[in-house]
Specification:
Helix content: 40-55%
Radius of gyration: 36 Å
Number of strands: 17
Strand order of the largest sheet: 10-11-13-12-16-17-15-14
Oligomer: single chain
Structural class: alpha+beta
Distance between the termini: 96 Å
């Protein structure tokens, strides 16, 4: 083990003589006294210095206090490395204010542990964290606490924001292998100075700019955030250009009074901290209640002189402190404002060799005037737009008549166009909003776009507010928000690795966040262009004379067949083949989820067909996310909860078909059901356990077991359930033919409409578990509806011969019976009238005249009319032709 070197300060900053002398005293004391005794002795000296009525020793006080802590941490780290015999490169470094030698009595102590080694399963790191984080071992020995974070070289490129600011001021505390300087070099090689500058400017605009103009305020002043950080913002802007230590910038300031004002603020902070008890915890990381001064604090500066001073002296001294404090606040605010102006007035280059420059008005291109061909001009223009999207900054309005002048005359697809779609940062929607300013620009990039955005479809006619291009940008914004929310949720999750089983509830945010770059770009491109290529569906719709003209001509605006529309994007824009393949699939099957959901029954056949249509997990996920975004504010989950319930169920079942996951009945075992009880519940069948209803097996599990045990006399159980915006009536009962008619008849008599229903039977035990979806506007009336439905089932209402006379009429419309697959039949009634009551009428006829078992019910009302679907199984011996004759004769 090599011995610890003398304390080094990185880069070219000299160590002040008084701190070098203090460090020597500390090391000598550590050879004679226990570390805690050394800490308490030297901190008492520093506290006494703070209480002296001097105003110009701020730098010495904060530097000494930092040195006391860093030297004791060095002593601990060197001893621990030697005790463990840890031979790989390791360092303890001070960061932020600790690294700048600017520690006050209530400051955070910022340290980091650096390793040239894996952090996972690192025994040495684990023991260090045990001492400082999980036990009082370090505190008991050294007398203070700190919470260092571990880093290795893989973390260097991920530093951003305030963490990057902290690492600017890194200096080694214990570093026998010069690891700190290597770490700094790794950061320099990987960080983005311009992004760091924008982060600081954003903080300035959000908070610090307001505080710069509030130097005279006495009722609310946070000395850290409203003054010290105000000064440091400018220092970090200057230091961030080449990732230098703040002390190097301090040494180059033109006016020494700027730095003196900053150290005076630190001196006042020391006094304020010393006269207040420490808060139990900060309001947020980096925030300290002790830093917040109110009027009483500004009036108390005379106490600094101590009790022996007379009232006149205290009065004069308090005036002096307030005068100097006001001067310091004004100076640091003025200093930072001028630094920011100096950075932006001539323009700050985005990078050393970058053609882009950031000015006060926004981002500009320095060399676009030298571009003459359409391709060169397009690459310059779209590269500027890409940079603005990446950094989320505006483009200088002057560029409208420079880089983008007459863009609608020459803009052409180039590789930078695909980069806009693949760019993970910023907003593609904002980029398109910018391009929309130039007449013809988007048409040149996406043939057919001009006809599309000026066309009028059913939605435009209903809303009467915007052209269709606005809806495209809103959908892109929705997608971007969905992806970000999903990524945030995954970061907060215990584990971010998604299992093969998508779970019981579908979260579009998570599904969007799980899309890869190719898939996400495909969803964006499909949302942008879905109405532009000419599809087979567009050809059929144009020839349908029954449709209004605006619906016949609502799509296919480029007249370029889908099969060839995207060819140019592969050859000229460098979209990947996978992105373009998926885009074509999304456009071709853009209505697939809606159309399949309208079929009403997500059985094994439908699921397998849908899995074959999608062809894989990511295509399925892409189509689901596309559908969610495409209908985010049109036929939404809130407006069409029943349809979205079926969409979610189809997605879950298809995903499980493609990627079989955990046993879908495992949650029942986890809930404590025995093997015998599971056998009863499992009899509900694979369709139940493979879909989104399966959580309700636990909800109704006890009821179903009671029904099985008590037999025919067992009363039913009805519960009112919520699933997102869906309102669901759940019914557990003994199964009998006519059960669906009992329930739907009672709902009709109570004026409660029905959107859809799924009915599950336990064939061996005579049980039924049925779910009836009600409109969101349904007034449920507490538990009254559940009680009356239970009564209707017990008394078997609404299924007698006498009920025929009171049936809702089904004469207006057409009723058709057809075979879906062997053993499954669809009875479908279409009418131009409201579907209210028709569900009951059909259920009654199925019971009385067909003697059939009902599996699912569906009722939809659209602008084209109403549709009622009943999925059923015919009784043995009844052929389809005979059943059709009964339907034609009796279903009136």
């Amino acid at each position: 083990m090599t011995s610890a070197p003398e304390f080094r300060r990185p880069r070219s900053v000299a160590d002040p003589p008084e701190l070098a002398a203090l460090r020597s005293r500390l090391r000598n004391a550590l050879t004679r006294l226990a570390p805690r005794q050394v800490f308490e002795q030297f901190i008492r000296e520093n506290d006494a210095t703070i209480c002296r009525p001097r105003l110009d020793d701020g730098r010495e006080i904060v530097g000494a206090r930092a040195t006391i802590h860093t030297e004791l941490v060095r002593h601990w780290a060197a001893a621990e490395q030697q005790r463990h015999g840890y031979a790989k490169p390791f360092a303890v470094v001070a960061l932020g204010g600790t690294g700048r030698d600017e520690v006050t009595p209530r400051s955070d102590l910022d340290f980091a542990l650096l390793f040239d080694d894996a952090l996972e399963d690192n025994v040495f790191l684990g023991d260090l964290q045990r001492q400082v984080l999980h036990t009082d071992a370090f505190f008991d020995t050294y007398g203070f606490r700190f919470e260092p974070l571990p880093f290795n070289f893989d973390d260097a490129s991920a530093l951003t924001g305030t963490q990057l600011n902290s690492f600017l001021d890194l200096r080694p505390v214990h570093d026998p292998d010069n690891l700190a300087e290597r770490f700094i070099e790794r950061i320099r090689a990987t960080y983005d100075p311009f992004a760091h500058f924008l982060s600081l400017r954003s903080s300035w605009l959000l908070r610090w700019q307001q505080q710069a103009g509030a130097a005279e305020r006495l009722d609310a002043f946070d000395i850290k955030h409203d003054a010290l950080r105000l000064f440091l913002a400018s220092i970090w802007m200057l230091a961030g250009r080449e990732f230098r230590h703040s002390h190097e910038v301090y040494a180059q300031l033109a006016d020494a009074r700027d730095l003196a004002a900053y150290y005076f603020l630190l001196r006042v902070r020391c006094f304020v901290h010393a006269r207040r008890p420490p808060a139990e915890r900060a309001a947020a990381p980096g925030d300290h209640p002790e830093d917040r001064l109110a009027f009483e604090d500004f009036a108390s500066f005379g106490e600094w002189l101590g009790p022996e001073a007379d009232e006149a002296a205290r009065f004069e001294f308090a005036n002096e402190v307030r005068e100097r404090l006001l001067s310091a606040r004004r100076r640091v605010a003025r200093f930072t404002t001028s630094v920011l102006a100096r950075e932006l007035t001539p323009g700050r280059p985005v990078g050393p060799d970058s053609p882009w420059i950031y000015r006060l008005a926004g981002l500009a291109h320095r060399t676009s005037d030298s571009c003459t061909t359409p391709v060169a001009k397009s690459r310059a223009a779209l590269s500027l737009l890409l940079a603005a999207q990446h950094y989320d900054v505006p483009i200088d309005p002057a560029e409208l008549e420079a880089t983008f002048r007459d863009a609608g005359d020459w803009l052409t697809p180039v590789p930078e166009l695909s980069a806009l779609f693949y760019e993970p940062r910023g907003s593609l929607a904002k980029s398109f909003e910018f391009l929309a300013q130039f007449d013809g620009a988007l048409e040149r990039l996406f043939p057919g776009y001009a006809r599309f955005e000026t066309s009028i479809d059913a939605r435009v006619m209903r809303e009467r507010r915007y052209l269709r291009g606005v809806s495209v940008r809103k959908k892109l914004e929705t997608l971007e928000g969905l992806v970000q929310a999903g990524r945030d949720a995954l970061r907060l999750a215990v584990g971010t690795r998604r299992t093969a089983d998508p779970g019981d509830a579908v979260d579009p945010r998570i599904e969007a966040a799980l899309l890869g770059p190719d898939e996400l770009a495909a969803v964006k491109l499909a949302l942008t262009t879905k109405r532009l290529p000419l599809t087979e569906e567009d050809v059929r719709q144009r020839s349908d004379a029954a449709l209004p003209l605006h619906e016949r001509l609502a799509s296919g605006f480029s007249d370029i067949p889908l099969a060839s529309y995207y060819e140019t994007y592969c050859a000229r824009c460098e979209f990947s083949e996978e992105t373009l393949r998926l885009t074509g699939l999304l456009v071709k099957y853009r209505r697939a989820f809606k159309e399949r959901a309208e079929l009403g029954l997500n059985d094994d056949r439908q699921v397998q067909e849908f899995a074959d249509l999608c062809g894989g997990e990511q295509a399925l996920r892409s189509l689901f996310v596309f559908t969610c975004v495409d209908r985010a504010d049109w036929e939404t989950r809130e407006q069409e909860p029943a349809r979205w319930f079926r969409i979610d169920e189809l997605y879950v079942k298809t995903m499980r078909w493609i990627r079989p996951g955990i046993d879908p009945k495992q949650h029942l075992r986890n809930a404590g059901f025995s093997a015998v009880e599971l056998a009863i519940l499992e009899d509900l069948g694979p369709d139940f356990f493979g879909g989104v209803y399966r959580p309700y097996a636990v909800t109704f599990g006890t009821d179903l077991l009671r029904l099985a045990e008590e037999g025919e006399a067992a009363p039913p159980k009805v519960r009112l359930l919520r699933n997102g915006t869906s309102r669901i009536l759940g019914v557990a009962a003994r199964d009998f033919r006519g059960l669906a008619a009992c329930i739907t008849g009672e709902l009709w008599q109570r004026g409660v409409n029905l959107q859809q229903a799924h009915l599950f039977s336990a064939m061996h035990y005579g049980l039924a578990l049925d779910f009836f979806h009600l409109p969101p506007s349904t007034q449920l009336g507490g538990n009254e509806l559940a009680r009356v439905i239970e009564g209707a089932i017990r008394e078997r209402r609404h299924i007698d011969d006498a009920d025929t006379a009171g049936l809702p009429s089904s004469e207006q419309g057409r009723t058709v019976l057809q075979e879906r697959r062997p053993g499954l039949y669809l009875l479908r009634h279409e009418t131009a009238l409201d579907a209210s009551g028709l569900v009951y009428a059909l259920a009654y006829h199925v019971f009385r005249h067909l003697g059939a078992n009902i599996f699912a019910l569906d009722a939809q009302t659209t602008r084209h009319g109403a549709f009622v679907s009943v999925y059923l199984g015919l009784p043995p011996g009844l052929t389809l032709s005979a059943a059709e004759e009964i339907v034609g004769r009796c279903f009136r």
